Amino acid sequence: MYVAQPIEWTDRGVVMLDQRRLPGEEVHHTYTDYREVARAIREMVIRGAPAIGVAAAMGAALGVLHSPAKTVEALRKELAEICATLYQTRPTAVDLRWALDRVCERFTELAAESGDLAKIRQEMVAEAKQIHLEKKATDEAIGRFGAEFMPREGQVMTQCNAGALATGGIGTALGVIRVAIEQGKKLHVLVPETRPYLQGARLTAWELHKGGIPLTLITDNMVGHFLKTGKVDAIVTGADRIAANGDTANKIGTYQIAVLARENNVPFYIAAPVSTFDLSIPDGSHIPIEERSASEVTHLQGVRIAPDVHAAHPAFDVTPARYIAAIFTERGVARAPYSDSLRALASAALPATSAR
Ligand code: MRU
Q1: Residues near ligand 1 (Cβ within 6 A)
Q2: Are strands 234-237 and 153-157 parallel, antiparallel or unpaired?
């Protein structure tokens, strides 16, 4: 089955598929400077929480690789600046912080082991590539756990794009659907277009269609109708940040889908890696919500569709834990009470599927 490749480390630099140009064109860019990677994240060349983490790690590795620093201390200072730049790109997806913390910890380990700058540079690149590799294994494990919850035959709704384009693996929510189909389940995917940035219409529809997975694209205001008329057996979405009590931030519109799911007795699931947990915050009210440009609301692909009025664009919303039937992770399935189950999964041993 076709798996999109949003990002790759190559000898020429970090190659990204420009997701802003999909589905019309498949254009790739090669970045050799970490500032370009930061801009690519901010401007949505690459998006989706786990993929942003991979991009940040590769950006940090590029920064270290091309740094003029002549001593470990100078490189340490520069890495702090590089990470600060990458960290400021998008505020909601916690995978970004997770990946940057991890590369910085690796630097500390390497610097303590030796002062060999060439070796440190090489190992930092290896760490970024390792993070990417692990994301692939993580998605597959999430897919296996989540597939159990998919109906043998029926219709599954998602939101935004939580597929290969969003992770660098097979996807989280779409990974669950993909594994279920590979296991012989007969699933049809209902894809809300996900205004204003249209990740559903542009990216999920593209990815599923290329992979031969049957889908129906709907507009966001059709969600209630389809849930009410009994045409949906389950919903599975990704996540950008999961608080200690299970409250989950995901693409704007996810909250209303979850509430309507409860009203219509449709199970609403989240599929996300443990790196998306933020157990340092007690609940969803502490999750920073990215406010993006209003022009993404007033314009569609550069064409004005509204008068020149004030428009709001919170890019994410928070679904309270009480609406979530289960959270699929690479280490197992979390159920309510999430304050216990998430903590247990966070401290569980690495899965046997880990690629390291
Ligand atoms: O603004 P985006 O496109 O980065 O938002 C992406 C989402 O909300 C995804 O659902 C989430 O990151 C999970 S991706 C596996």
Answers
A1: 47-50, 93, 160, 162, 166-167, 172, 199, 237-240, 250-251, 315
A2: parallel
